[in-house]
Specification:
Blueprint: H1 3-41, H2 46-64, E1 69-74, E2 79-82, H3 84-90, H4 94-97, H5 111-124, E3 128-135, E4 141-152, E5 158-167, H6 169-173, H7 175-204, H8 208-223, E6 227-233, E7 239-246, E8 260-261, H9 264-272, E9 276-278, E10 300-307, E11 310-318, H10 326-365, E12 369-373, E13 379-382, H11 385-390, H12 394-397, H13 411-423, E14 428-436, E15 442-452, E16 460-467, H14 469-521, H15 527-555, E17 564-567, H16 568-578, H17 580-585, E18 589-592, E19 597-600, H18 602-618, E20 626-634, E21 637-644, H19 676-686, E22 691-695, E23 701-708
Parallel strand pairs: 18-20
Antiparallel strand pairs: 1-2, 1-5, 3-4, 4-5, 6-7, 6-11, 7-8, 9-10, 10-11, 12-13, 12-16, 14-15, 15-16, 17-19, 20-21, 21-23, 22-23
């Protein structure tokens, strides 16, 4: 090859290399700029930030493993930064080269060329190039082409310069090597341009389909494929959904809206998470899975889109005239990664939009008023609900001092609460305050809030206010009603007590005269008269019992004595003593387990046990009465049971028996007033428990009642 040809080729190579360096510099600057924009745009989305950070590292890898050596020099040729390729070119580790003079690697005879190169960059303030011989650490000599451009500070003065090193040793040997290097340079330039365009599309488009289309075409044009698509995995993970497809010059009659099954070569990609290509697809086992109407496939390549180590989609390419190569696989993988990042970004944008819409709907329809205050109490945000509750529009309040609307009597507590919130970031505030309505009335607000002044997303004190005016009025009315109810209950008890005494006095007089009448005229009148006298005496006795039971029932209505530690064993002992006659007459067998100490009114507890045991004796069966009392701790309360072997109760009557005056048997069968179990129910409920029965007719009954378990140091168990 003649000298003129070599010179011409070198000049062409120099021009191409210069263009490659400028594009590379622009790529690095733009990538860094886009990375900053992505980071700012996705500040609040930590997960996306991590993905983008990973993307940044990948682009850093593109820089480090680029085919060219990239150096940053100061004005004197001191190495400030270098990529891994550049370090390898010199046969040194990257960290060793930082702050070392580049001249230590230059052939002595070419030292002046480098000095002149540095001088021209500073003086001319424009890109410069030169060729040098470099001596590697192992002593071997290589030819390198340097392409440099100045980096100026804000004053326009050259701060340092960046240089791309290209190994042109082979180009100096043969024409073939030179052509190969030129072609490689073109490919790398095309790759970088395509990657850059794909990266731009992430910010350029606001929907994933448009972004995917741009990324696909950049990849397709770079690899030389004729057709392909981008698809995402459906939620069922069994089919893919085509987002964008280009069938090239042929017509594909397969309906893209119908999900395509994950199988064949696609299935292998999803399974292995790796890019796969096949240049003899028509003869492969995968060809059988092509649906009817699909274009003919000679060769095919699938690159997975991966998020969080899971394949979520595919970038597919097909029908490259010369067949796919490992370089195509590498580049398709890079584009599929960009597509995955684009999908993450678009999903994040959608999440932000949904969050904003969600927040807007909540604030507009909330039953609370949401306010954000500055540290000095100035209203910086007000939710639209303020107009619904207090009559003001948002614009009427924003910029005003919140304390200007607080009732004068509530100013002090409001100021103290606000000051405390500012002194203690993160601590919640809570108070009730009267706030002025636009119509001049005062509304009572229940206010809660939190100091988020240090949170850059809020930078304020967030306050939630709820209008509780009606609730406060209702509470006051309820208090009045409670007081009236207490007075009414007291009056009712006094009336019951007085009435019982007033009724008992004439009842005793009538009973006395009837007994006197019976004594004087018994057996002296006819048998009918004796029967009337006996019936009258029985009625008087029943009336006396009824009056006493009603009096006892009415007195259960109040709490009575203060609850104290009460030994249930002693309570049972007293109850059994009161029932001694009934127990002996009926030959009843009473057994019991260890009973606890509870917080209760001992007197009323005696009445409870006495009524339940008496009830068990009264409703005995033909067998000898056997009654067993036990207790156990259960879910924070004491559960007592009184089990008998009596006549039992029909389950449908299990609730009715606790209602006053409700009897299941006639008075002739079983005497009584029907008040005993109603008294038991009131005693148990007064102690905060509940009472019920489990029984079947003819199979005995078990009465259960509970008393809350309350810790007390003086209690034994």
């Amino acid at each position: 090859m003649g000298k003129s040809s070599i010179k011409k080729i070198r000049a062409q190579n120099k021009k191409l290399q210069e263009l490659s360096f400028l594009d590379t510099e622009r790529l690095i600057n733009e990538l860094e700029s886009k990375q900053e924009e992505l980071e700012k745009y996705n500040l609040e989305l930590l997960k996306l930030k991590e993905e983008l950070e990973d993307s940044k590292n990948k682009y850093r890898d593109l820089y480090d493993f680029a085919p060219l050596g990239y150096f940053t020099f100061d004005k004197n040729g001191l190495i400030l930064d270098v990529n891994l390729t550049g370090a390898n070119m010199l046969g040194m580790k990257k960290e060793y080269l930082i702050n070392k003079p580049f001249s230590m690697f230059i052939e002595q005879d070419d030292m002046e060329i480098f000095r002149a190169h540095c001088k021209d960059i500073i003086l001319k303030q424009s890109p410069q190039s030169c060729e040098l011989r470099i001596i590697r650490k192992d002593g071997k000599l290589f030819y390198f082409q340097l392409q440099s451009m100045p980096v100026n500070d804000s004053d326009g003065k050259c701060r340092n310069f960046r240089t791309a090193l290209t190994d042109v040793t082979k180009l100096m040997d043969t024409e073939y090597s030179l052509i190969e290097a030129l072609e490689l340079s073109r490919n790398r330039q095309a790759e970088i341009a395509a990657l850059l365009e794909s990266t731009r599309s992430i910010l350029k488009y606001h929907d994933f389909e448009s972004t995917a289309r741009s990324i696909f075409y950049a990849c397709r044009n770079l690899t030389g494929a004729s057709s392909g698509y981008i698809a995402l995995l459906k939620e069922n993970t069994l089919e893919i959904e085509i987002i964008f497809i280009d069938s090239g010059t042929e017509t594909c009659s397969v309906k893209t809206e119908v999900g395509m099954p994950v199988r064949g070569l696609r299935g292998e990609v999803y399974k292995t998470c790796k890019t796969i290509f096949n240049n003899n697809f028509g003869e492969s086992k995968w060809a059988q899975f092509l649906p009817k109407g699909h274009i003919k496939i000679n060769n095919i390549l699938f690159a997975p889109m991966i998020i969080e180590n899971k394949v979520i989609g595919l970038l597919g390419l097909a029908n490259k005239p010369s067949g796919f190569t490992e370089d195509d696989s590498r580049m398709a993988t890079a584009f599929s990664e960009i597509a995955a990042i684009a999908l993450i970004n678009k999903r994040a944008e959608e999440n932000v939009k949904r969050s904003e819409e969600y927040f807007r709907l909540i604030t507009e329809n909330s039953s609370d008023m949401i306010t954000i205050l500055e540290a000095d109490g100035t209203i910086k945000y007000e939710s639209p609900s303020i107009e619904r509750f207090l009559g003001y529009s948002k614009t009427e309040l924003i910029g005003k001092k919140v304390l200007d609307f607080v009732h004068p009597e509530d100013i002090k507590v409001a100021v103290n609460t606000l000051s405390n919130s500012i002194k203690n970031p993160g601590v919640s505030l809570s108070l009730e305050v009267r706030f002025k309505h636009k119509n001049g009335s005062w509304r009572v607000l229940e206010v809660t809030g939190k100091n988020l002044l240090d949170n850059p997303a809020v930078a304020g004190i967030v306050v939630n206010s709820r209008d509780i005016t009606n609730r406060k009025v209702a509470e006051e009315n309820l208090l009045k009603l409670n007081e009236e109810l207490k007075r009414s209950n007291f009056d009712l008890q006094q009336f019951a007590y007085a009435t019982s005494h007033d009724l008992q006095e004439p009842l005793r007089v009538v009973a006395g005269f009837i007994k006197l009448l019976a004594k004087r005229y018994k057996d002296k009148l006819d048998t009918k008269a004796d029967e009337f006298i006996n019936l009258t005496l029985e009625g008087i006795n029943r009336m006396d019992t009824l009056i006493k039971d009603l009096l006892a029932y009415s007195q259960i209505g109040t709490k009575g004595k203060t609850f104290k530690p009460t030994d249930c064993a002693k309570v049972l002992e007293n109850a059994l003593a009161n029932l001694k006659t009934a127990i002996e007459e009926n030959n009843a067998n009473i057994t019991y387990d260890n009973l606890p100490v509870v917080m209760a009114d001992a007197t009323k507890l005696v009445s409870l046990f006495q009524n339940l045991i008496a009830n068990a004796i009264k409703f005995k069966s033909n067998q000898k009465p056997h009654i067993h009392i036990s207790s156990k701790k259960n879910n924070g309360e004491w559960l007592f049971s009184i089990k008998d072997n009596g006549i039992g109760i029909d389950p449908k009557d299990a609730e009715r028996i606790f209602i006053i005056f409700q009897r299941l048997h006639s008075k002739s069968e079983y005497p009584g007033t029907g008040i005993g179990l109603a008294i038991c129910k009131r005693i148990v409920e007064q102690h905060g428990g509940k009472i019920w029965v489990e029984s079947e007719k003819g199979k005995g009954s078990t009465f259960y009642f509970t008393i809350p378990y309350i810790e007390d140091k003086s209690m034994k168990g």
